[in-house]
Amino acid sequence: MARLVIFILAVVANMASADLRFHQVDLFRQGDAGVHTYRIPALLETRKGTLIAVVDARHDKTGDLPGRISLVMRRSFDRGTTWSAPQVIRKVEEGGVGDASLLLDRRNGRIWCFHAYGPPGIGFPTAQPGAVTGPDTLQVHAMYSDDDGNTWSSASDITPQIKDPSWQAMFATSGTHFETSRGRYLIPMVVRDGNRTVSARNAYSDDRGRTWKIGPAIGPGTDESKAVELADGTVLENIRAGKARVVARSRDGGVSFDEPVPDAALVDPSCNAGIMRYRRGGKDLLIFTNAAAVRRENLSVKISHDGGWTWPEGRTIHPGPAAYSTVIALRDGTIGVLYERGEKYSAERITFARFNLEWVRGPGRTANSAKPKGER
Fold first, then answer.
1. Domain 2-368: which topology?
2. Helix (H, G, I), strand (E, B), or coil: what is residue 17?
3. Would residue 224 show up in a list of annotated catalytic residues for this protein?
4. Strand pairing of 51-58 and 96-104?
C-alpha cells in the first residue's frame, strides 16, 4: 500500500510538472522593510528540494559597495509557489556585505554562500593594492549551512588564499555556482590587477572548501562570468564583456582557458547573466538567461543543444527593464530563474519565475542560431 501511495504521488508530481507552463512571483520589492533597493539574485535548490533565494538588501541607495548592504534570504518548500518571510543571514556593524553566490556540495548537502565584504569606505572602485586582506581590501568571505538554510555558520575570509598583493580588488561573481563532476568547487571571480586591468578568472577548491587557489586571467576586458561543465568534462565560461557575451573553454577543470571569443547570438547590455546544464529525460541542454538587448531590458531564456555553439530556441520572460539573473534546473524537471525587473527601471523588484521546456518552445518563442566567432 505504501509503495502504491508513493507511486501515485510521483505520478501526480510529474503531471503537475508537465502541466506547468509559466509561474512567477515577486520576492523582494523596492521599499519593503524600509530597504531602499534589493539587488543581485542568487538561487539554489537543496538536496531536500528547498529553494533558497539570497539577495542584497541595499539599505540607503541603489549602488554597490561601499554602502550599507546586508544579505537577505527567503526559502520555498513547494518549488517556488510560496516563500518564507525574509530573513537577514548576514549584517555587519561597519561596512557592508553583498554579491552573494550559492553552491551546493553534492556529497554532503552543505550550502555555501560566497560574498563580498567591504570594510568602511571600501568597494570595487576604492579597494587598494598592497595587502591580501585588511581594512583597505575588498574581501571574499564564505559561510555555509548544513540544515537547508535554517542556520548559517560565521563567515570566514578566504581572500588571503587567492589574492595577489599587487591586485587592487576582487570579488566573486554573484548568482549560482557548482561543483564539477570530479568534486571541484568552481567560483568565477572578477579581478582588477595592479595595472587596473579587469578580468575574469576562477577560484577553486579541491578539498570541499578548506583551501583555495585561483587560476590565470581568462582574458583582458572580461568581467562577471558563469561556468558550466559539459558532458566531456570541458568547462565553458560565459562572460560579461561589453555588448555581446564572450565564451571560453577549459580542459583542465576550469583553471586555464582557450582564448575567449564573442558569441554573436548572445546580445548583452554588459550585465551579469545565468547559465546551467539541464539533464532530464534523455536531454542534455544548456539553458542561458540574460537581458537580451543593448540596454538592461528583455530578460530572456535561450536553449542550446550542442554545448553552447548555437542557441536555436528562446523566449522572453519579461520584456521591460531587467538586469541580473541566475538560472537552475529543478529536480522535477522545471526551470527556475531569479531575476531583477521593473516597469520603469530594472531594480524595482526581484522575481522568481518557474517554467518548463514546453513553455520556452511555445508561442512567442524566438530563435537565433548564430555561432560564436572562431573555430568549433
1. Neuraminidase (2.120.10)
2. helix
3. yes
4. unpaired
- 3-class SS of residue 147: coil
Catalytic (active site) residue 164: no
Q: How confident is the model at residue 12 (pLDDT cuts 50, 70, 90)?
A: very low
Catalytic hit among 56, 224, 268, 340: 224
Q: Report the 10 Å Cβ neighbour count for 232.
A: 7
In the prediction, which pLDDT does 364 show? 66
Cβ pair 216, 202 in contact under 8 A: no
Q: CA-CA distance, 72 to 57, in Å (whole number)?
A: 6
pTM, rounded to two decimals: 0.92
Q: Report DSSP letters for 327-340, one per residue.
A: EEE-TTS-EEEEEE
Locate 135 and state its grid cell: 581594512
pLDDT of 96 reads 98
Catalytic residue among 324, 339, 340, 348: 324
Average of per-residue pLDDT values in the chain: 93
Distance CA 77, CA 188 (A): 28
For the chain, the structural domain boundaries read 2-368
Query: Which band of pLDDT confidence, cut at 50, 70 and 90, is reported for residue 97?
Result: very high
Active-site choice (45, 56, 64, 313): 64
259 included as an active-site residue: no
